[in-house]
Amino acid sequence: MAVALGLFPRYCASSSGSVADNDLVLIHGSRSGNFGNPTEGIGTVRYCWNPVNQASYNHLIDYNGTVYELTGYRAASWHAAYLNARAWAICLAQPTVNDAITDAQYSALRWMMQEYHDRFGVPLVHIKSENGRGFIEHRETAQGMGHGKSDVGYRLDWDRLLGPGNG
Ligand SMILES: [Zn+2]
């Protein structure tokens, strides 16, 4: 399911630039600001590919459920300032806070969350503090609040994400 596209800019404040020992995953929205933007996914990938932007994610999920592997599981991405060194980032293609999360994105995100759980033991829970262990929206972190981040927002249904047998 994942599509590897090569090397992306990595956050490397620490010696390793690795987040392999962490247990926190931030969920982002891509937020070009262009409602309904048909090329939001690949446009964000291209944006992340340019080191000048100092932006990247570990994985990005397009509208159709395609998972783009950017920095991947083992390298820190450039997504939330001081949290870069201790949290992974999954970005949903979502141009604005009002763009819906697609059925395919829910399925792919559930799959990704299970991968992070199976590979690294990240608890399959929605947490509301960046100091906890599990999954959290960018806007729910102190870092995100401090910078007025709205992603992912009301369109993300956590009951659907964490509920049994759907996706
Ligand atoms: Zn974000």
Short key terms for the protein model shown above:
167 residues, Lysozyme-like, six-stranded mixed beta sheet, 4 helices, 23% helix, binds zinc ion
In short:
This protein has helices at residues 40-49, 103-120, 142-146, 158-162; strands spanning 2-4, 24-29, 59-61, 67-69, 88-92, 134-137. It has 167 residues and is of the alpha/beta class.
Distance between the termini: 15 Å
Helix-strand topology string = EEHEEEHEHH
What is the CATH domain class?
Alpha Beta
Biggest sheet strand order reads 1-4-3-5-2-6
Count of runs of 4 or more consecutive helical residues: 4
Might you state the CATH topology name? Lysozyme-like
Largest sheet: 6 strands, mixed
- Rounded to an integer, what's the Rg over CA atoms? 14 Å
Judging by the overall fold, what is the CATH architecture?
Answer: 3-Layer(aba) Sandwich
The amount of helix comes to 10-25%
Shape: globular
Please name the fourth-level CATH homologous superfamily: Peptidoglycan recognition protein-like
Describe, in plain words, how this protein is organized in 3D.
The chain is 23% helix and 14% strand. The two termini are 15 Å apart. It has helices at residues 40-49, 103-120, 142-146, 158-162, and strands at residues 2-4, 24-29, 59-61, 67-69, 88-92, 134-137. A six-stranded mixed sheet has the order 1-4-3-5-2-6, covered by helices on one side. It is of the alpha/beta class. Zinc ion binds at residues 28, 138, 149, 151.
